Predict the 3D structure of the following.
Amino acid sequence: MMTRPAPGVGEDFDRIRRRIGAIAAPVLFLLVLLAPVPGIDGSAQRLAAVMVLVITLWVTEVFPLAITALAGPTLAVMLGVAPARAAFAPFADPLIFLFIGSFIIAQAIFVHRLNERIAYGVMSWRVIGAHPGRILVAYACIAAFISAWMSNTATAAMLMPVGLSLLTFMETEGNVDRRYGVALMLAMAYGCSMGGIATIVGTPPNVIAVGMLAEQAGVEITFVDWVMFAGPIAVLMVGVLVAYLWLVGARGLSEVPGADRIIIERKRALGPLGRAEKNVLGAFLIVVSLWIIPGVLSLVLGSDHPVSGAVTESIPISVAAIIGAVLLFILPIDAERRSTITWNDAARIDWGTVLLFGGGLALGQMTFDTGLAEAFGRGMTEAFGVSSLVSVTFVSALFATLMSETMSNTAAANIAVPIIISISLASGVDPVPPVVAASLAASISVVFPVSTPPNAIVYSSGKVPITQMVRHGLVMDLAAITIIPTMVLLFLS
């Protein structure tokens, strides 16, 4: 059972933040709308007022993020910034359907507990056994792998009971001290955040980066392209994570006999692989194959080859995800031909993130259509003197990290990516490295309980004091804003 810390830190912070936002958002909106703003006027100024309002509401979370995402384009239409058809068209962007399809597949994996089978299967390997250090490494790696394909929140919620069971046993039977408990819980939380950066579908900021680069900079990034540069970065970040946490929490600990039996018993309780799990696994592998094949063909034959071009055009990543989701409704699990996933299960996906992404795309597109992005990018470049690719990339990673510490990483990416694209274009540098660095860094902001859902989940266990989360989180943030832009520049510049 999870024990919860006394309320205080998280609740007080959220309450104060919302009160500030409720006052600041309308005041800032009116100031920008009515007062002269150097360099912009007309529809650009009206959109700037809307953007200030939306960003303030996103940062302070006065309303649910998805509602604010809908309110932004709505207010833009009311102020005459854009017609309704153009303002809401991004909500039907193909990448919206990538979200929907991949979320449904992830929901099926969760419903039929395929993720648990993967976790217990790896944790039961003999090489891991009952060694606390090896368990910590395996726990972080499993969290990272699963989170590369499904929600980091769902991954953390699923893995938490496993870690708590092991920790309770090791604290009782092996006299493992509190430092190990902190390290084990943070290994899972940070592993979830780091694993999500490996694939386009691993975390919403990745999709936001891909979508906005395509819409606003005309740059297309395939699934294989993303994995080729983000996969090694994720592996390196997880390597730094496990090395650091092993040093501070698991070094010198001896084997705790019997710890491995807990995992073996849980694995045995799942029973043999059932029809539903086989269907989910099959659909998932088909989708991954469809995501990979176009990129592989482009690498082998060249992106200009007729075959690779035809395959890429006919099976984009969004269509592949929908194919997998549809298969789950077609494949039966028993003689009565009940489908692998029901609509009641599928309807539980994170529709809020879908709307949040749509709202971010809509506002981002309007900033370019009205000229606001160009004016903002020019102003930021002149004010801060950031003009080289290296400086823009490092500043972008730092900016996204700071934004994501106090708000949803999806909202942070929605705010940061259009700004970074505009600064990049105004500086005359390739926008891809700065945008990618920002999107990856936004997912690895792990200082506070409010920074990511996995952080909040492990904090609720009562095993991680706030001081320890801040201390270790700062180390991970420092690693992220150093390693990510460096690796991105090596791969993409």
About this structure: Residues 8-81 form one domain.
